[in-house]
Amino acid sequence: MTIPKPDTQTAPIELDKARQAEEKFSGFEVTQKRLARIIPEVRSGQWILNSINVLDVQKHSQRQILTCQLSYTEIPARRQHSISLVCKVDRKNSRQSEQAYNVLKCLWEAGFQPPSEFCVPRPFACCPEQGILLQSQAPGIMWADFLHAGGIRLERASGLVADWLTQLQISGVKASLREAEDYSALTLRNASRLKALFPGYAGRIEKIEARLLRDLPAPRLALVPSHGDFHPKNVFLELPRVTVIDFDTFGAREAAYDVGYGIALLYIMSFFRTGSFGAGERAGAAFWEAYRLSGKATWPRVVLQVARALLDNLHYTFYLMKNSRVELLPLWLDLVEAWLAASSPVVFEKYTGSFSHLIPFKPSKNLAKVIDLDLDYVKWEREA
């Protein structure tokens, strides 16, 4: 396996990035020979592997994620091709890699592939013994990057994402119940930890906890295929195509689960990226408006799932990540309480246009790409 050598004329920052990638790669155990053994087309002789150029190696918790460019020759036509691949390695949870591969394969065969507008990465190979999952790289721009663009671009993108989720829920793809997903127990644990951490807000947290524990359990709800981690960084848009990644938590859940989780994470990412809930609120409104036309989730259940996801993220931010910005807590609790009191989508009008900049504004490096993508959307819309 080769790593492209940095150009000596490259700017110092780019050279540093190349060195960092090479240092990360030095400890990476996936070799060209090993990949050749697990790609079915290479193993069968349909492809001759020419090269694999490593573009990046990231570490997420106990998992390593390698992005690379693969060049191969197709036999017998002798045509050369180049594709972008993502190789995920999780040796401590190899069963999860196999499950994710099987989900991707099932969705791909069910039609979540080009030329459809609703896609998943193409699953190339899986090696359960080594915890390796090899898939195509999702094309386009993250949904999260549209939060910086705002306006009609953000609304159009959010509506297309809602259509993807609706398509998943009505696809009929087989999904199993997830083990160890007792949301009442998780809510109880998270609320207890937050109350101990912030005794001054214990009363407000306890009321939220009581409402969720009372209303979340609903044993007769119909279950649908569910992504399980449906947030703006797991969705990519190359208009009009939407590709969703990371199916490690795929399973059967109520329809409102992914809807509520997605809306909650729009608020959260909006706040940490722009300093306000406003962009996330606008995206959530457009997402819900598109989803409700054909989606299976009801508004009262979405309300509960938004509140549950927000409380979970409070626990993650302050208890697990030990964020010291205590002044953010009342704002977050205000948002949870507003949702639990929401009898209609009017709740989406609470923060729109409000940019308080309580945290430093974080500009998106992909903003120009988002604008270009919008021009592509207009062209596609006219042609349609």
Write a brief caption for the model.
This protein folds into two domains: 12-136, 2-Layer Sandwich (Phosphorylase Kinase, domain 1); 141-383, Alpha-Beta Complex (Aminoglycoside 3'-phosphotransferase, Chain: A, domain 2), CATH 3.90.1200.
Which CATH first-tier class of the largest domain would you pick? Alpha Beta
Task: List the secondary-structure elements in sequence, H or E.
Answer: HHHEEEHEEEEHHHHEEEEHHHHH
Instruction: Enumerate the spans where pLDDT stays under 50 for 5 or more consecutive residues.
Output: 1-15, 22-28, 353-361, 378-384
Reported for the largest beta sheet, the result is: 5 strands, antiparallel
User: What structural class do you assign from the helix and strand content?
Assistant: alpha+beta
Work out the oligomeric state of the chains in this entry.
single chain
From the alpha carbons, calculate the radius of gyration and give it in angstroms: 22 Å
First-residue to last-residue Cα separation: 44 Å
What is the total number of structural domains? 2
Spatial strand arrangement across the major sheet: 1-2-3-6-5
Average pLDDT rating: 85
Q: Per DSSP, what share of the residues sits in E-state strands of 2 or more residues?
A: 15-25%
